[in-house]
Amino acid sequence: MAFDQQRFDRLIQRLETFASQQPPIYRLHVACLAVLGYAYIILILAVTVALLVGIVWLMLNAQSFSTGAIKAVIFLLAIAIILLRSLWVSFPPPTGLALRRKDTPSLFCVVDDIATKLKAPKFHHILITTDFNASVVQRPRLGLFGWYQNYLILGLPLMLALPPEQFRAVLAHELGHISGNHSRFSAWIYRQRLTWYRIKEGLGQGNNESSWFIFQKFLKWYIPFFYAYSFVLARLDEYEADRCAVEIAGVENSAKTLMNVEVKARFLENYFWSDIYQQVQTEIEPPKTSYTAMQIALSQGVPLREASIYLAHALAEKTDNADTHPCLTDRLKALGCVPGVQEELSVSAPMRVSAAQEYLGNIFEKIRDDFSQAWCEKIATPWRQKYAEVQQSFAILDKLNAKAERQQLSLGEATTRALLTFELEGEEAVVPLLREVIKLDHHHASANYLLGQILLKQQDASGIEHIERAIAKDIDIAVDGYQIIFSFLKKQGQNDRAELYQELAEEHYDLLLRGQEERSSVKTTDEFKAHHLSNPEINQLRQQLSRYPNITTAYLVQKVVQYFPEKPLYILGVMRKFSFWENNYDADNAQLVDALLKEIELPGALFCLILNSNLNFEKKFKQIPDATIYQQKIKK
């Protein structure tokens, strides 16, 4: 049973109602589904062993060892071995820098303390990584049957971003997923979701092709269905883990932690690393102390203006079914917290001591410096390549500046000049150049959007008009654009007007989700229309298709879409030849589709289909004018 997004959303909606109205029965259904996975494999194994024993017993009783019976024994024995091997799927251990208790006693002590209070299992390993994240991984040493090895994975950037009391809330949330204080059942289901997906990944890889063949039909139905059915429980488990954080760190620290994590993740991505990579303009080698710089930047706090914008963006996001994690607003609401000005001040405040300094103790500086060195070595080659590109950009900008002194630049030249100036010289230098671009094209999307952002940062309300003009030209920037205006008006104290832009952002976010869903699949019940591409564009496409000798016929149409119809969705359907020796049609089809999607560029999104197994599509496409764009010439 396959799930498209619409069907998945409808099922989740029904299950949320079911879970809220009849929690025990819903949990019983989830438990039965979890047990079903084990029961299927054990049943197959039991039947195989029973048949094997029965045939051997009959052979011994009859004292007859016919060729057919011996072949049956060998076949069943092979099946049994394959089944046993498949249950022993190996799970590679997580990667990271392993910490020792004697080196970081404070960290192990706080983890042990929280684990004891929450009745969570002890950890066999604590790893430090470069991710802005923390997670718990339970690695089953016996495959499907568990015997878990517990890993706590902590990102150094996250530890640098949070004070010790907030980091305790993060630890409590992660341990809450496997704690016994609140729901052993939820923790068990949490493990099962991860285990089944790992088994699916493990089967079919390396020497497990035959194992995957045996389980293929069942797992193709079972895993998506179990995931969908346990999705609601997994989301409830996130709220449960938040309550564990409250139990350990208190409501205030837990709420501040949620906001701080959202703000500082955006700060590192949009500000800190951007500033680090900006050094490529003048330095041929990457900085050797990047994590020291990160420590200093995070300890000083996020600038209030940026903190306000990042928090507004995070609060504007809505919970959807793409992830079991609820959105920030819903999580804060569950804690009884309504963010205000004090929270903005809190997430931007300087930090005296970070969790990294507190809990990593004497080896903190060594870990920080080792991570800096590893990052430097990893980035060195692409950094030098980028340095060369930047020097070339400086040369192009110099030529454009010289030409602009002599004559009027074209729209393309003026745009390139503005973008290069912004990239190389910053916001103040680019403002007059953006105005020149807008003089040439009043509705230029990128120029208006960039100018609008700069003006609003300078507290100039005229930036609103520029951002709205950009949104009118490019709907993809609507959510971010309206959020920027919302944050500006909120700062100005224009709350009523700000709320209007917040509503617009939410409406466009919903539309984007619906548009993505509409474009995520193609069905024979969809409506299609002519492609409306020009002859030169079709000729170029034919040339590209002619380079694939296994493509015999190709059709190009547009899917009629309800959301954002100005952004076409092209459907390329191809008929292909199959070689006699091919034995993996699905993989070969996927490879061909990937190649076509990478090579072909159209003025809109592209969806590619192999029509050999979708002949109903071919019938529909043939009825559309000019749909047949390519037919392979038959060699005489």
Supply the key terms.
636 residues; alpha+beta; Serine Threonine Protein Phosphatase 5, Tetratricopeptide repeat; Beta Polymerase, domain 2; five-stranded mixed β-sheet; 24 helices; 65% helix
Mean pLDDT, rounded to whole units? Answer: 87
As a percent range, the share of helical residues equals 55-70%
Shape: globular
Profile the largest sheet.
5 strands, mixed
CATH architecture of the domain at 408-519: Alpha Horseshoe
Query: How many alpha or pi helices?
Result: 24
Percent in strands: 5-15%
Structural class: alpha+beta
CATH homologous superfamily heading of the domain at 408-519: Tetratricopeptide repeat domain
Query: In the CATH hierarchy, what is the class of the domain at 408-519?
Result: Mainly Alpha
Number of strands: 9
Low-confidence regions: 204-210
